[in-house]
Fold these 2 entries.
Entry 1:
Amino acid sequence: MAKGKKKEVDDRFSKFGTVSFTSISKVNDFIDYLAQGKVMGTKCKQCGTVHFPPVADCAECLSSDVEWFEVTGKGKLISFSKLMYGPVGFEDDLPYSIALLDYGDYKVFGRIAKDIPDEELSIGMAMKTDPITLPNGQLSYVFTKA
Ligand SMILES: [Zn+2]
């Protein structure tokens, strides 16, 4: 960053491409972690509730004493659906499949990697969450077979 130049808007979340997140400056570190190849959620240090996508304040006890944890290991595919129509700005990506992985303490919503054929997807299968860089340079993550 240029010396002495004050950044007025923390817009790191604009680097994130696929899923709509509420842009809260306190959780913009998510993007920095993604750039490092880590998909991160937050865990409340007061009550232990884990959140993905990350939150600045715990939804359970409203504490803002949260810490980061990395989404690692295998999740279980509990739901997926192929989108033939998408929100404005996503038309070129269609069709793609959105899915929900169950990691036990938390669930992760996202997209399934495009190179996985539909017929290889089944409810209950093990998948993992991988950070990716999209062709346009945006950062995101996809689900791949574990
Ligand atoms: Zn809490």
Entry 2:
Amino acid sequence: MAGTGSLRTAAQILVDALKIHGVDTAFCVPGESYLAVLDALYDAREAIRLIVARQDGGAAYMAEAWAKVTGRPGICFVTRGPGATNGSIGVHTAQQDSTPMILFIGQVPGEFADRESFQEWVAQIERADRVHEYVSHAFHLAMSGRPGPVVLALPEDVLTQTASVPDVAPYQVVQASPSASDLERLRGLLARSRQPLVILGGTVWTREACRDLQAFAESSGLPIACSFRFQDLFDNRHGHYVGDVGIGINPKLAERVRGADLLLVIGARLGEMTTGAYTLVEPPRPKQNLVHVHAGAEELGRVYQGELLINSGMPQIAAALKGLNVDGSAWRAWREQARADYLEWTKPTANPGRVQLAEIVAWLRERLPEDAIIANGAGNFAGWISRFYRYPGLRTQVAPTNGSMGYGVPAGVAAKVAHPERVVVSINGDGDFLMNGQELATAVQYGLPVIFVVVNNGMYGTIRMHQERDYPARVYGTALQNPDFAALARAYGAHGATVEETAQFAPAFERAARETASSGKPALIEVRLDPQAITTSTTLDAIRARALKG
Ligand SMILES: Cc1ncc(C[n+]2csc(CCOP(=O)(O)OP(=O)(O)O)c2C)c(N)n1
Ligand SMILES: [Mg+2]
């Protein structure tokens, strides 16, 4: 670090600021607009690892996913205009998922000044002597209250200006705490409840917060559900876990959400996916007594009025709940039945064709080590993972709540960068995979032995499903002609295999695990799924027949 007072360019001050705020990894696609930053990163290469992606969208997803698996802000650099536009998908994902992330955009003065479409704080640094202020503000914004993305533009001419400024202190995480009266009112509501349900979600959880929450679940006897894509906040194997409230929800759990007399929602945003498109919990005043705890005050009362709204960070509420004395005898049978429903729901179901996807996911849940990370993007294939996998704990799931395709490959890469010692399995649809399959090159370049799975049904299956429901037997724009994925993987320098029946999966996976361990290179397993196998519980033909009957 150049240190206090010496003359540094804005780019050097920026990179020094990143070091001060604890950054050790950054993702980018380079651009001539921020060469000065690249040069400062060159000097800082011992402290900050730079991962260069093949598409700015891949880089931005990587930074977002990196934040998801570390709990620290993901850092991404892209160039102006085209780079920023490509990268915006990562910003959208970070916004919807409340993920702390800072996207730095190399910028030309005057051009492309404000991108309101990014929905979040967008600022441009205009002076070298204010770099620290802007960067510090960006970290505080990204991490405090409801976390999210921040976009900072770096005009090219400013980056080479010099200034003599003192260094700053690292950012602090600012989170609210529940008040004593909040907790007293919560205790009162719980005391009158017979059918309560807890729904966990959102970010700003820590391992300790999850442990505290588990202790509270055990002492209070409460049943715990998780919101869409936040299934790893509570050990799915635990007797109090009752399932996820998202796409493809267990119908019995949906009934339970609807029929609960008290919903204690902790950290979840109560968006479309978590409310069954606003049917399970009705806005603006739900039938259930709603207690909503969220880190962002602006999120409380936004869609739903609640009986009790608590602005709190997750560690703060979890620690407080751990100390709350609640008698759970009234809902014991209700919870046990909810758990029994979950176990019944997650027994593998059969699908048409030679590949049984539920059995493969069930095999993975037995085979993978407890800390393995599962990354995935969006598509119907993901329904098998959320239904049949059992996430054992925090940061074992990396997936986008905004249903953004193309996420699985860069997220797998980022997870392996963050946790090289952990097994990372990235599960993708065929459409999904090819949106960012180029990042296989990044995995090869940096020696990241991720195991990629491509569930190939030869179509944009999700859209075909909706098409058959709304416009039966009028298939259009949803079929895909795919490459030989295993050969494609080999062309990238990765190991490639193809699975055409269930029994081939286990040996293919074991071989991939051996190959990746010995070569340090990634592997890809294409799983050929019968196109009729459209969801975990129905077929395309059945959907079409129902729609044609009207
Ligand atoms: C970036 C992006 N583009 C388009 C969509 C709309 N979309 C949602 S699912 C889907 C198809 C997914 O296909 P695939 O990955 O093959 O999975 P499948 O549903 O076939 O299992 C599409 C096009 C989206 N969610 N995200
Ligand atoms: Mg598909």
